[in-house]
């Protein structure tokens, strides 16, 4: 069973309403005789562990693309000079 209070009670007697929320789990707030709001106790969701870091993927993401065989041959020929 949930407790009931008015918006005026919430504004003027908050510690009493807070204690009701802590003991009852929820409090229904009424305004002008009609229930309009529901206060519930906030609970933190369970913390999700961080995914493991793939350091190899991070490292290779910053490396230049490897040379093709044709590019490597061309670079080798350019570096040989006139021998």
Give structural notes.
- The structure is a single chain.
- A hairpin with a 2-residue loop joins strand 2 (26-31) and strand 3 (34-40).
- This protein has helices at residues 7-12, 14-24, 55-61, 69-80; strands spanning 3-6, 26-31, 34-40.
- The relative contact order is 0.12.
- It has a three-stranded mixed sheet.
- The mean pLDDT is 90.
- The protein is of the alpha+beta class.
- It has four helices and three strands, in the order βααββαα.
Outline the secondary-structure elements.
Elements: E1 3-6, H1 7-12, H2 14-24, E2 26-31, E3 34-40, H3 55-61, H4 69-80
Parallel strand pairs: 1-2
Antiparallel strand pairs: 2-3
Shape: rod-shaped
Largest sheet: 3 strands, mixed
Q: Could you list the spans in which at least 5 consecutive residues all have pLDDT below 50?
A: none
Assign the CATH architecture of the domain at 3-40.
Answer: 3-Layer(aba) Sandwich
Instruction: Kindly name the structural category.
Output: alpha+beta
CATH superfamily placement of the domain at 3-40: YefM-like domain
Q: Determine the CATH topology of the domain at 3-40.
A: YefM-like fold
């Amino acid at each position: 069973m949930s407790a009931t209070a008015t918006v005026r009670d919430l504004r003027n007697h908050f510690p009493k309403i807070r204690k009701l929320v802590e003991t009852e789990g929820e409090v229904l707030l009424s305004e002008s005789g009609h229930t309009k709001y529901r206060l519930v106790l906030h609970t933190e969701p369970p913390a999700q562990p961080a995914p493991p870091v793939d350091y190899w993927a991070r490292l290779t993401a910053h490396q230049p693309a490897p040379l093709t065989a044709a590019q490597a041959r061309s670079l080798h020929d350019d570096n040989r000079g006139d021998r």
